[in-house]
Amino acid sequence: PSHSHTRTRSQYAASGAVIRGPTDYGPYTDQISDLKISSDNSRLMVLGIKSPSALYGDNAGYTGVLTSVDATNGAVAWSTLFSSGGSGSQTSFRYAPLFNGSLIFTECWGVQQTPDGGYVVACGTGIEDCAGRRNSPDCAAGRGDYRAGAIPRNKYIWSSMVVKLAAGGEVAWQRVDSYRAASQAPQGQGGVYTQYTSQAEYVTVGADG
What confidence score (pLDDT) does residue 188 get? Predict the structure, then answer.
């Protein structure tokens, strides 16, 4: 899979004149979903969605990816991938052995800097559908994560995933909420936009249905 039609960034002056770009971030992301400037104005945080096809070929699926870019010269400092089945840099990322990344996708749509200099990212994760090569008994049963404690997740019902990264791009923690057992009623779409509050909380906004 590919989102290669929306992966460039351009920098403009207040007058509208182009300062730099467009820069193609294809080696780091397939699609840019959000863009934030660091609190000290030194870095651009480029959030996107990536298919790690170089590692997994047609079984790559989708992951979220956050890339730190120098605001002055456009150089990339670090780029971290994350999914509900694993996280790591562009070179170290791997899905967990008992996790089917070709079936359970992760897409991320919102990023905010936190007071400690790190970042919090809001994503959705789940089974998109059972079409094509995903048409399997496992998909129909909501099975794709065989790790201890994993709960079957129905197709079309994505869940909220929040990732906290340190200033250097390391994943400090991540959590997934609102997974439901196959016998339970769906809770609706997971939250995929995030906002940091003065109470040191992370708020994600979701849609019911």
Answer: 45
Q: What DSSP designation does 16 have?
A: S
Residue 90 CA to residue 111 CA, distance in Å, equals: 19
Query: What distance in Å separates the CA atoms of residue 158 and residue 125, rounded to the nearest whole number?
Result: 5
Confidence bin at 24 (pLDDT 50/70/90): low
CB contact at 8 A, 87 and 128: no
CA angle 153, 111, 174 (to 5 degrees): 45
Gap between the Cα atoms of 124 and 84, Å rounded: 9
User: Token match 């790790």: residue?
Assistant: 147
What lies within 8 Å, CB to CB, of 207 at 6+ separation is 188, 189
For the entire predicted model, the pTM comes to 0.78
Give buried/exposed letters for 10-39 (b at 16+ CB in 10 A, else e).
eeeeeeeeeeeeeeebeebbbbbbbebebe
Spatial separation of the C-alpha atoms in residues 118 and 114, rounded to whole Å: 5
Helix then strand count (H, E) for the chain reads 2, 13
At residue 180, the pLDDT reads 55
**Distance between CA 23 and CA 207 in Å, rounded?**
33
